[in-house]
Automatic annotation (TrEMBL):
<feature type="compositionally biased region" description="Gly residues">
    <location>
        <begin position="262"/>
        <end position="271"/>
    </location>
</feature>
<feature type="compositionally biased region" description="Low complexity">
    <location>
        <begin position="152"/>
        <end position="165"/>
    </location>
</feature>
<protein>
    <recommendedName>
        <fullName>Post-SET domain-containing protein</fullName>
    </recommendedName>
</protein>
<feature type="region of interest" description="Disordered">
    <location>
        <begin position="141"/>
        <end position="184"/>
    </location>
</feature>
<dbReference type="InterPro" id="IPR053201">
    <property type="entry name" value="Flavunoidine_N-MTase"/>
</dbReference>
<feature type="region of interest" description="Disordered">
    <location>
        <begin position="250"/>
        <end position="271"/>
    </location>
</feature>
């Protein structure tokens, strides 16, 4: 696909963003000029020249179940990463259900998911720990519900066929009812979604809301901790290099002074 030719004034966000254009597919990148706290706002899209699009493209951003916008600004150059950072990256499946142009991720992070096609093709466990837009959570919940119904229908049909074809055992006794293996422990998000399907109990709703809030707090704390550790390590590394540099500089100065003294002494003695 041919690269999109910018039709907007560049740079569009010089105060917060630096765009570096390189040749090749997915080679351009965006560097943040500011630090943003976890769950903070990087750019207000309402203030940009966004336009609503009829269908998704590789250059659109999904903002609802069936709503997509073109950013029409340099924010387009924010690349994907499985571990978003201040390099102006974000996790595409957090907003995109199905990418119009899937790609092989090259972020190189430990948690890289390799092929990125949107949240639709990712499991609950793969999405765990990421911030997800409301429409992505709803679509994932709906997907899980449909998968659960299909599994239940298949199990019921299989059990009925088995019972009708073999009603009695060889000794004439009725066989015990078929047993099924209990499902594996599900992600908390799916459990909460299942509980809320038929539950109108205000207590259940209140506890679900509390769980929502708690998960956001935990994720914010985790992100803040990781960011703080990274910054601390970088600062400590720079300080160590500075100390090493000072030691080398002083050692060189002392060595020169000592050598000069010896040379001077030798000259006087020889004279």
């Amino acid at each position: 696909m041919a690269p999109l030719e910018p039709h907007w004034q560049q740079p569009s966000h010089p105060d917060i963003q630096e765009v570096i254009n390189n040749e090749g597919d997915f080679a351009s990148k965006s560097i943040s000029r500011i630090a943003v706290a976890p769950f903070g706002v990087y750019a207000d899209l309402a203030a940009s020249q966004c336009t609503i699009e009829d269908r998704p493209t590789y250059a659109t951003c999904q903002i609802g179940r069936n709503k997509h916008i073109s950013l029409n600004s340099d924010l387009l150059y924010m690349n994907h990463s499985c571990e978003p950072s201040l390099r102006s990256q974000f996790f595409y499946p957090s907003t995109e259900w199905e990418l119009a142009q899937p790609f092989d991720c090259s972020c190189g992070t430990p948690s890289c998911h390799d092929r990125i096609a949107g949240a639709r093709d990712m499991t609950i466990s793969q999405l765990e720990g990421y911030w997800l837009s409301g429409h992505i959570r709803e679509l994932k919940k709906q997907q899980q519900e449909h998968a659960g119904k299909d599994a239940t229908t298949t199990t019921t049909t299989s059990s009925s066929s088995s019972s009708s074809s073999d009603t009695f055992q060889a000794d004439g006794e009725t066989p015990p009812p078929p047993t099924t293996t209990p499902p594996a422990a599900e992600d908390l998000t799916v459990i909460r979604a299942h509980n809320s399907l038929d539950a109108k109990d205000p207590t259940v709703q209140a506890l679900n809301d509390a769980l929502d809030h708690a998960e956001k707090v935990v994720e914010a704390a985790r992100t803040a901790l990781v960011s703080y550790i990274d910054v601390s390590r970088s600062a400590a590394g720079r300080r160590i290099e500075e100390v090493k540099g000072e030691r080398v500089k002083h050692r060189g100065t002392f060595g020169e002074a000592e050598g000069s003294s010896r040379r001077g002494g030798g000259g006087e003695g020889s004279g």
